[in-house]
């Protein structure tokens, strides 16, 4: 299952996921997202630099795991086309498969921020749109680089 995975693409998309996340949440949507996600900064409630670094390292690992898992899912989906009679070589079909994965695996977490953590719908919209764009990026990298 892991033999046909392009690990250079996994590495690249893991790094690019971080860059996209920074651009999306800290540049494009910085003020409204940070306001609604974190609230007003408290003087004693700010995490230490060590805690921030630990969080960053964990997210780097998660980004690589997501890229690897997506690469495996895409390979399995393409192989399934031969078995189940759909066109596994169609980029359009792969796009809709990718959107289904993005919806199925990200909506429970992004919408959960609203229903369980009582964040705003803006946070849900920013997080969900980031995931949709990230999964589309993953598709394009793995589709054209493998």
Automatic annotation (TrEMBL):
Taxonomic superkingdom: Bacteria
Keywords: Membrane, Transmembrane, Transmembrane helix
Positions of transmembrane segments: 6-30, 56-79, 91-109, 121-145
InterPro entries attached to this UniProt entry: DUF1761 (IPR013879)
Record has Protein biosynthesis as a keyword: no
Official protein name in the record: DUF1761 family protein
